[in-house]
Each structure stands twice: as C-alpha cells, then as structure tokens.
Design a protein that fits this description.
Elements (H helix, E strand, L loop, with lengths): L1 E3 L1 H8 L5 H12 L2 E2 L2 H8 L6 H9 L9 H14 L6 H13 L2 E3 L6 H7 L3 E2 L3
Parallel strand pairs: 1-2, 1-3, 3-4
Helix pairs in contact: 1-2, 5-6, 5-7
Length: 127
C-alpha cells in the first residue's frame, strides 16, 4: 500500500509532470493506492467535481483511524511546532494516518519533510 496526498493526485489529474505523478500512476496501475481520510475529504470538497472523478475518489480504499489516533496526531503536530516548523492541522492528520499504517506518502508538498524528520513519516515524490 502507498498513500496519495491531495497535491500529487491533483497534479496527476492535471497531467502535470513529476516524480510524484509517476508514482501515483504506478500506484493506480498496481492497485495499491490508498487515501488518508483527510485527503478524501479535501478531494470531495471541490463542488465542481465531475461524477466520474468523484466515483474514482470514492473507489480508492481509505485508511481507518485507530484508537488514540487524535491524541497521537495532536502530539505529533506539537512536536513539529515545538521545533519551530510549519505543521498544518490537515498535514498532521495525513502524516499520522500514514505513520499508524506504516505506509509511505506520495506527495509534492514539501511541508511533509518535517514530519519525515521528526515523526517517522516516509515520503516519496516531494520536489
């Protein structure tokens, strides 16, 4: 399994280039793509989605949250902020989902590098 971040999926759907887009394509080809719950929420928040794209998003498995998730995510975010780094709430939730399931996150969002350094998140594709 490999998790896909919103930034990389949007780039993929816009036919942009990048290592992350190639990784998203491979994940779909190998049928091992998953979404952290926050990513699905972000994607479905676009009121202009076509029915086909919405159905595509809904067909991708979603990582389940486990007991203690919210506490772990809050503590993870606090540890990043304590080091003086940027840690948006949605990013902390995405990172914690991936850490809990021991899956790598495909992303082009460089903000996740702090979660990789401090929080054991594995990332691929960030430029």
């Amino acid at each position: 399994m490999v998790a896909i971040d919103t930034s990389s999926l949007v780039a993929y759907l816009a036919n942009q280039r990048g290592e992350d887009v190639e990784l998203v394509d491979l994940a779909f080809e190998q049928k091992n793509a998953v979404f952290p719950p926050v990513v699905l929420t972000e994607l479905l928040s676009d009121s202009n989605l076509s029915r086909e794209v919405r159905e595509l998003f809904l067909s991708i498995p979603v990582l389940e949250t486990s007991n203690g998730f919210w506490s772990r995510a809050g503590l993870l975010r606090a540890s990043i902020l304590a080091k003086g780094f940027k840690a948006r709430l949605a990013d902390a939730l995405i990172a914690q989902s991936c850490i809990d399931h021991n899956v790598t996150l495909i992303t082009r969002d460089r903000d996740f590098r702090h979660f990789a350094k401090i929080g054991r998140l594995r990332v691929m594709g960030s430029e």
